[in-house]
Amino acid sequence: MLGFLCQWVSYKVKLPAILLLLLCGLVLGPLFSVIDPNALFGDLLFPFISLSVAVILFEGALTLKRNELNEIATPVRRMVTIGVLVNGLIMTVATHYLANLSWSLSALFGAIMVVTGPTVIMPMLKTVRPTPKIGNVLRWEGIVIDPIGALIAVLVFEWIVVQHTSSDISEIFKVFSITVLVGTVVGLVAGYILGVILRNHFVPERMQNFAALALVCATFAVSDSLMHESGLLAVTLMGVLVTNMKGVHIEAILEFKEDLTMVFVSSLFIVLAARLDFAAFLALGSGVILLLLVMQFIARPAKVALSFIGSNFTWREQAMIAWIGPRGIVAAAVSAVFALRLEELGMDGADKLVPLAFLIIIGTVVLQSLTARPMAKLLKVALPSTQGALIVGANRLSISLAEALSKEDIDTLICDTNWDNLREARNAGLTTYYGNPSSDHADLHLDLSLYGSVLALSSHFEFNATQATSFRDEFGARNVYMLPPNQSSERLHKHSVSEKKSGRLLFGEEHSFRKVNRQLMAGAQVKVTELSNEFTSTDWGAANPDAIALAWLKPSGELKFNTTDNQSNIDDNAKLFYLSEREQPQSVTTKEQKPDPV
């Protein structure tokens, strides 16, 4: 319940949930001793953490599509390859000398600290609102680097374990190779089995999520039982294989795993923070502050500088990317798992891993959350007030309007849960999203910083109302719009409560989806005309009595939509978007929409 409340409050105040979760755990644990995870879970603490991390890593691996990796820009590929090594090496050296850890533990900590993660990056991007180039780089880095970074950390950890338990180099290599072999074989076999189950519908659709969760837990348990610490590698490879198998649809499983990840992240952060001891923080000394500064001002900038050599990114854009790199749940959870295992082996200094990781996590999240937006404005890479439109529903109206807006350099994104409905939009070269724009998947993968308004234009009034309600808090009530219901105007009062709680009604009470779509099927087109002092909105109305005013673009660049509460406020000297079957009078300059491609 506390985890949910932290997530909800963070959503309301637009802050990363990790801050509130950590604060909650610290208050309940070391501050007031309300929760003692060791006493509460006993011997189940380690399995609970391990299985939670396994599910989180599996969910992260499901986003690692091979074709998407091929399309990632060169700088991003460098960031998750060369950049990872550079960042890990710098942090290894800094940890050894500033935190007084052995080279082995320093290498492990350096490997753990290469991950950022979408759970902390995405909320920060919504607050900072950098330019699309910067947002895309940071979002893709966060998604891709999770499984890669966790895999590197697992491999380094295995090297430490075998090194600590054996002095024979050949034995170390043997154990390490077996660990990687077991994790790889078990993971690939389990991934193939899950893929075959999903592709051939061997289990009912309503049980597929349960089957996936059960198989993930079983895969981790089997692999870890055969060879210690091979389970994390197994579930990561399992997720990568499943998401890249042909004919396997994982959308529902991915959404389910994202929900589970939120539950596990919330619970895990509170539990892990509650285990901390303030004395352990103090024992780290002042060197940890210097370690944080090294990460923020040396390791991250060096990684970005090497990754962006020869790119078309300006120094301002690179500086912004270098500034944002918070650590999140994977760093915390993996460090906790490894620390528990190393403490069982009696390794000196292992108890410092968790407090050290949490101090870095808290430091990066707090520092960057408070300074990223001012930094973006200082570097002039922050987006101004957004005028783009997020459009829900792919149909004749939404596609025609999106094409007209795009010709005026206004960003649009058409979302639909039906792949076939999006075909015409894709053929027209419009930006699309296949899925529910208010889903957890969209929350992680969609960059909404380009869009200042939401247009719910689907054929279903109830769905439009639901989507409008979902985006009211994020976009503001005045920037969320929807079509009126398919009822006559005298019956519209039955639905007035929906407008107050969801979105503003577009175009007029009588212009429902059914009526507008009928006009489009009869040959109507979305057109654009220039209003002026010589040809005002009144003149346009007289010349186009049957036309429907859709929106207008003011000279200042502000985009306004025609709603039931502002129909008489069309600005003169603006570009007017309207739906009409009439040809524009020859005396007026117009820009007509081209016919939709077949």
Secondary structure topology:
Elements: H1 2-13, H2 17-31, H3 37-41, H4 45-61, H5 66-71, H6 74-79, H7 82-98, H8 103-112, H9 118-128, H10 132-165, H11 169-199, H12 208-226, H13 231-244, H14 251-274, H15 278-283, H16 287-307, H17 315-323, H18 329-344, H19 353-378, E1 388-392, H20 396-407, E2 412-416, H21 423-427, E3 432-434, H22 440-445, E4 451-456, H23 461-475, E5 480-482, H24 496-501, E6 504-505, H25 513-521, E7 525-530, H26 537-543, E8 548-553, E9 559-561, E10 575-580, E11 590-592
Parallel strand pairs: 1-2, 1-4, 2-3, 4-5, 5-6
Antiparallel strand pairs: 7-10, 7-11, 8-9, 8-10
Question: What attributes characterize this protein structure?
Answer:
disordered C terminus; alpha/beta; 2 domains; five-stranded antiparallel beta sheet; Na+/H+ antiporter like fold
